[in-house]
Amino acid sequence: MLGLTAMTIIRLRSLFAVVMLFSIYSLLTASLFMVLDAVDVAFTEAAVGAGISTMLMLGTLMITGYREKRPAHSPILPLIVVVLTGAVLVWGTLDMPHFGSPDQPVHQHVAPRYIDDSPKEVGIPNMVTSVLASYRGYDTMGETIVVFAALIGVLSLIGIKKYTNKEPGRTEKPPESILQVAAKLLIPFILLFALYVQFHGDFGPGGGFQAGVIFAAGIILYALTFSLKDAMHLAPPKVVKVIAAFGVLLYGGTGIVSMLKGGTFLNYSVLAHDPIHGQHYGILLVELGVGLTVASVMMLIFYAFVSRGEAD
Amino acid sequence: MMEMHLPVLQVIVPLLSAAICFLLGRGKLPWMFATLVSWVTFAISILIAIQVSDGSTLQYELGGWEPPWGISYNVDQLNALVLVIVSGIAAVVFPYALRSVEREIAPEQHGLFYTAMLLCFAGLLGITITGDAFNVFVLLEISSLSTYTLISLGKDRRALTSSFQYLIMGTIGATFILIGIGLIYALTGTLNMADLAERIPQIESSRTLQAAFAFIVVGFGLKLAMFPLHLWLPNAYAFAPSVVSAFLAATATKVAVYALLRFLFDVYDVNFTYEAMQVQYLLIPLATVAILFASIVAIFQNDVKRMLAYSSVAQIGYMLLGIGLVNATGITATLLHLFNHALMKGALFLALGAVCYRIGRTSIQQMAGLGQQMPWTMAAFVVGGLSIIGVPLTAGFVSKWYLILGTLENGWWPLTAAILIASLLAVIYIWRVVEVAYFRERPEGAPDVKEAPLSLLLPTWVLAAANIYFGVQTDFTVSFAKGAAASLLGGAP
């Protein structure tokens, strides 16, 4: 099914359908991850791939239009390159360690310690969160900054158009449509769910990335069913920008505090008297940093795309 | 206590400063802040270089987890040298940026511009310093994303398409690197470079390992503009803002060359790279073609910025040729050229940025007669040009000298001839600019041009002077390059 979807995406010329199929593709991938027992990854794929990136691509379509232009050059050379790369990949992976076999090197070397010792060393049940936020916490900080860098790119290229209208707030829309009522019912639960995912990441699947995306999705739903102006009134771009930077600084700041307390950068064990408590505080803080940055970056990127689309 | 934290401060100072810079808004404040940060970072890199100058290595465990479970930073002479050159160039380019950026970029974007510069800077430092294969990829993404942003800020609208072109090529490169790292991880179960180096020899016959090698070489090949994967580079450098061209030309490709070296010799080892994969038979022909072909193309360019960009492709060819020579002298030459080329291209692009500041464009006809009107700027250009050609007493001579020694050591005299021919080609393309600038009159009706302001001249001349200094005083560069080459060829650090 994945292959079929991908083929259709390549053949289709209607960009709107392509975006929808992308979303389906992501959902299929997410189910695949689910089957592989990678719950956290599946969750992220569903939230980011199927959810927010579809929204952003639709926002882009508002600016660019729905039809794809005929490509100007012949597809022969790219085709050869792609086939060659695929062939190398298949050839190269034929003698890979068998899938699912317990003697795979992956299960022999570094991972056993994560599995055996992380409950003792880090003290939280979700090992994925332990690896993400603590053992390899520096990579996660890097990823957060990648998201931040994407924001810088969008802001400098498109920017957010300011509304100069005097009357802020609600647009004059007579009786609330069904969509608006439904959205009003849904949004509180979406936001609540985001908070749950945020703070429950230590115990179940979830964490800052997913929570941030879901939170942003709640606000974006508001913008879609009401109007962008309403959403901007609720969450002004200026404030959201500050929060985006603050999330990064919260993550980095946690690292710096642990340096001042005599550990190395991002060593949470020194944050409290008991190393396990320290790890708890540290993970809570950095996940909050991730959540804040991701949520605000997603909202700002959406604002940028849509305000540009409305202006044209 | 601070000494212990130097390796991590090297990266997080600019990285977190980027978030602060974003909050500073408009005006001169972001520039002042970013400049200060670049100087602090340069100071840190010098302190690190002093610590490792005796051949020792520093290790820093992030998060307090020892590798391979956590991520570690490892500094030896090799990356200390690259750290010094990247942060040194930044420390020169940031003060220069104020006037040049005022002229080329809209005021409301200055804050974003300096934020992106700091992110790019921090990303490049992070790739250089880390001892973890996946961490390389994360920092590579930070530097790449901000690079695309920076290029797209060029005032010519074609900057957008060239940035997009680079985005596609760069993303393919990064994906290839990620596939390579993923395959290695599947085979070994570890991401730490030193740990990988221990485990890879045991599985050397694995085809997956060879496929991973191919993906990593092609991935970094795209990033460092290895011929024929260089097509993104001339447009990117030609249309980016002057400051960005100077910064990227002097640092970005160098860091990619470094990362390639690290993977070829430290993650994989010398035997695998040269004997099992025979990488020299790939690099030597490609590098030789790059040197000759790109130099010839450079001669026919109308835009001086684009000419320098093609010259960069040729210079990268020299660095790859050094790797292909399979001897310590060759690797030393690669490292020396990595350092020296940053100095010369930095000086040339900054001088050109000063020209652009005064006359608004960089096509060669517009530069007629500038030798009299902007004597200091053009003199700096000439110094950088002499260094590109490889005239004795400039930095360029030192690295070419080692490269020629390396070819002669193997008795591969056709390569020696190719290097000499390419140097003559460099004479031609630099001379074209000199001839126009010094021996032609200003065209009729062209407005009078004054010398560039001091805040542009001073940084340009710092780099031009560095070209002469490191051409005469070679202790620092040669000893670091030799030490690093020895440790690369001697196996894991």
Automatic annotation (TrEMBL), chain B:
Q: Which ranges carry the NADH:quinone oxidoreductase/Mrp antiporter transmembrane domain?
A: 132-425
- What is the annotated localization of this protein? Cell membrane; Membrane
Membrane association type: Multi-pass membrane protein
Transmembrane segments annotated in the record for this chain: 6-24, 31-52, 78-99, 111-130, 166-188, 208-226, 238-261, 281-300, 307-326, 338-357, 378-399, 411-431, 452-472
Instruction: Output the superkingdom of the source species.
Output: Bacteria
InterPro entries cross-referenced by the UniProt entry: CPA3_Na-H_Antiporter_D (IPR050586), ND/Mrp_TM (IPR001750)
Q: Which UniProt keywords apply?
A: Cell membrane, Membrane, Transmembrane, Transmembrane helix
* UniProt main location, coarse: membrane
**One Pfam family of this chain:** Proton_antipo_M
Q: Record's Gene Ontology CC terms? A: plasma membrane
The family assignment reads: Belongs to the CPA3 antiporters (TC 2.A.63) subunit D family.
In Swiss-Prot or TrEMBL terms, this protein is called Cation:proton antiporter
